[in-house]
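Input set for joint prediction.
Command: fold jointly, output C-alpha cells.
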Amino acid sequence: MAHEVVLLDFWPSMFGMRVRVALAEKGIKYEYKEEDLRNKSPLLLKMNPIHKKIPVLIHNGKPVCESLVIVQYIDEVWKDKNPFLPSDPYHKAHSRFWADFIEQKVYDTARKIWATKGEEQEVAKKEFIETFKILEGELGEKPFFGGETFGFVDIALITFYSWFYTYETFGNFSIEAECPKIIAWAKRCMQKESVANSLPDQKKIYEFTVWMKKYFGMD
Amino acid sequence: MAHEVVLLDFWPSMFGMRVRVALAEKGIKYEYKEEDLRNKSPLLLKMNPIHKKIPVLIHNGKPVCESLVIVQYIDEVWKDKNPFLPSDPYHKAHSRFWADFIEQKVYDTARKIWATKGEEQEVAKKEFIETFKILEGELGEKPFFGGETFGFVDIALITFYSWFYTYETFGNFSIEAECPKIIAWAKRCMQKESVANSLPDQKKIYEFTVWMKKYFGMD
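C-alpha cells >
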C-alpha cells in the first residue's frame, strides 16, 4: 500500500511536535504544511471542521485529528517498527492513563507561567512543579516512561521540553533544581534523532512567546 | 485465566456507568463496591492515588483508572464478545476522536446547567445544545455512533442520558425539541439490557442533585 502522508502543523505546537516525533520514530516520509493560525487554510478547515486545530494528519486523503489519537493511529498503521504502546492490555492501559494525565495537567498550567503574572503565575508554577514531581515518581529509575524503550508517554511529554526555557525565564525558576530526573530523562530523549530533529530550539520558542505576548497585548 | 473483577464506583457517576455498561456488554461478573466520596475508602486511595476518583476497575488485584481507559482495557482483555472499537485503525481513530470530543465538551457544560444560574446557566444551555447538535450531525442516519452496532462512542455518551431530566428541569428546556435524533438514539440504547440495567432512573438522579445542591449550599 502506498502511503501519502501530509501533516498540517504549526512549528511551536507541542501537540504538532508529538506527531512529528511519532512519524520520525516510524521513519515515515511526509509533506509538512505550516499553518498560519491567524488565517487558517481552507484545507485545515475542511480536514478538521470540528476543532479547526492543528495537528491534522492526512493519510491517503483521510484526516486524523487530535495529537494523541494521531500518535496511536500511526502506531497501529505502521506497527512493525518501534511500537509506542506495549501489546499487553494492562501495560497499554497504564500508558494511556499517564498520557491522559499529561493531557489533563500540563498544558493549561504551563501556559499560565508565561501568559500570566503575580498570584496566578505563582499558583501555576507551584502546580507545574507538583505535576512534574508526580511524573518523576512515575518515571522512577526507568530510562523512559515506557521502560527500556521510548514510547507513548514519552512522546506525549517530551515536546513540552522545547518550552522549558520559556517557562523558566518567565517564571524565574529552575525546573532542573526541582525535578532533576525529568531533565535527565529529557536529555536522554533528545539523544534520539527522532526527537532532536522534531523539537525547535528552546530559545526560538522563547522569542516566539515574547513576540506573541506583544502581538496579543499580554504585557 | 480466572478473572476477579471489582468495581469501585458511585451510583450517579456517568463515568462509573460507562464501566458498568462495558462490563455488562461483555457479560463479566464483578463485585460492585459503592464509594462514599465524602469519606473515600482506603482501597480507593490505594488503587487510584493520583486522582483519588472513581471509577476504578480492579482486575486480579491490579487497578485500571479513568473511565475511557477502563472501557478500552475491558475491550482488549475480553476481546471475543461485542467489540467496542472497530479493528481498522482509521475507524478506531475516528471513534477515539469522538469519545475525546465528548470528554472535552459535555461534562463541564452539562454540570453548569444544574449548578449555576442566570447568565452562566444560559451560556451553558446554549453550549450544551450546540455540542449535541454536532453529535447529532456525527450520528446522522446511523442507528449507533459505531454504525450498526453499539460501541465505544455510544458507551462514552449514553450515560449522560440518565442526567437529561436533571438538565431539562433545572435548565427549563427540552433536549428532544432541540436534538430529536439524540433522544431516538438514546431510547435505542436503552432497549439494550446492558444499558438499561446500568443507568439509574432519571428521577433519582434529579433527587440526588436537589439534595446535593442543598448539602453544598448551592442554592
